From TrEMBL:
Source domain of life: Bacteria
Species the sequence originates in: Hoylesella pleuritidis F0068
Protein name per UniProt: Uncharacterized protein
Length: 140
């Protein structure tokens, strides 16, 4: 019987590559492109985010010279090394607002992304939309 696992030797690079791809797409509102880096259970959250995009949000995003960027600050592995929490700081991203209101740009905010290893592959595991308590809208 072959068991596929996420060994420590290749975990960091594979996990960081998944978070890189997910964060690049998700924080630039490319929700469909973020999907391959998530668990199947996460799809409903990405669909929810996509259905709340308004034309005013699209216009704001298209008017930007550069997209959101991020930096991984820390990775904390859970028991058994099949789960982890990735702490990252996201810069210059459009924070989704309530329905009917355009999103607002945030200079920097910290997020924690839960990730899981299934069948030897790391994936972001959303149980809610990523949320930051410290992100403040950019003053206009």
């Amino acid at each position: 019987m072959n068991l596929i696992s996420c060994s420590r030797s290749d975990t960091d690079s594979q996990l960081k590559a998944v978070v890189d791809s997910f964060a690049t797409h998700y924080y630039n509102w490319q929700f469909k492109q973020a999907l391959p880096y998530c668990t199947p259970e996460s799809e409903s959250w990405l669909r929810f985010a996509a259905t709340n995009v308004q034309q005013s949000d699209v216009d704001i995003l298209r008017a930007q010279d550069e997209g959101a960027s991020y930096q991984i600050n820390d990775i904390k592995f859970g028991l058994g090394d099949s789960t982890a929490i990735v702490s990252l700081t996201v810069s210059h991203y459009l924070r989704m607002d309530t329905v009917g209101n355009a999103g607002q740009f945030v200079n920097k905010a910290d997020f924690q992304l839960p990730v899981v290893c299934r069948n030897g592959r790391w994936m972001v595991h959303l149980t809610a939309l990523p949320y930051s308590q410290n992100g403040r809208p950019t003053a206009k």
